[in-house]
Amino acid sequence: MLHIKNLDEGLELFKALGSEVRIEIINILIKESGMNMNELASRLKITNGALTSHIRKLEECGLVKVSGEASGHGNQKVCTVNMDKILIDIQDAPKNENVYVSDIKVGLFNDFEVYPTCGLASNQKLIGEVDDTRYFAHPERYEADILWFTRGYVEYGIPNFVPFNQKIDEICISAELSSEAPGVNNVWPSDIHFYLNETLLGTWTSPGDFGDVKGIFTPDWWFPNWNQYGMLKMLVINHKGTFIDGLKISDITIDQFEFNSKSAIKFKLAVPENAEHVGGLTIFGRGFGNYNQDINVKIAYSPVE
């Protein structure tokens, strides 16, 4: 997979793709699982020289790989597509001097109570046995990059390293989330509750446990009938209230907590047994899903008046 982190970085790629002929070349190579240059020129009805120019542009930006056939040379070289996905970040993250940023691995929870179906895995392997809640207390849980459970909760300690004599004005938490169904089910609603220091901030209903296609970053060894990707959700609490993806979900404000540089901050994600939709929770971290991030936290602060 090719990950382009800004538009300037992707300029050569965009130029390479700005040609109907080169798009056709990629489509043919995908369909045929590769082709030598003589055959490809014949298929396209262009000269070998023209094809060489197109292939060079595709090769320079990493889209196509060229290798020699054992029994051939020159234009017997074989062309293949070098990647299956392209991820482009359109906008750089805004910078703010008065923001503390941290990432929390999915397995770094401080407290939990979960019920099967459940499990944890790093991007290399399963951690323990699935549906055995004891492994949520195993030391290897700290390496987890994905976890899931049908109901219950996990609670994280949010690092608080804002400077002394500062008050916290806003906390922004983003994570890739989905429901947890037996196997996968894109229509499997689950009411996910968010708590800060045991205060319910609000809920978001996940529409399903997505498995229709493989997650962009989900490792190849992962089971095809298991959770593949989630939805990136952004929870914000500030002086105006609590918001999910910009939509207000409650009137709980940051002022009610009186957070400062000395405050302990605990964040809980839960699916209570009395929720209307008890559809479980999956949290995707780096190396899984579509966003390749852990639980990201941004804390905005200002001087105490």
Characterise the protein shown here.
By secondary structure, this protein is mainly beta. 13% of the residues lie in helices and 35% in strands.
Which descriptors would you attach to this protein?
nine-stranded antiparallel sheet, mainly beta, 13% helix, 305 residues, 4 helices, 19 strands, 35% strand, elongated
Question: What's a quick, concise take on this entry?
Answer:
The chain is mainly beta and 305 residues long. The protein has helices at 11-17, 20-32, 37-44, 48-60, and strands at residues 2-4, 35-36, 64-67, 78-81, 86-88, 99-104, 111-115, 119-121, 146-149, 151-158, 166-178, 190-196, 199-206, 231-238, 241-244, 247-250, 265-271, 281-284, 295-303.
The low-pLDDT segments are 70-74
Strand residue percentage: 25-35%
What count of helical segments does DSSP give?
A: 4
What is the count of β-strands?
19
Structural class: mainly beta
The profile of the biggest β sheet is: 9 strands, antiparallel
The secondary-structure element order is EHHEHHEEEEEEEEEEEEEEEEE
**What's the oligomerization state?**
single chain
- Percent helix, as a range, is 10-25%
The Rg value, from CA coordinates, equals 24 Å
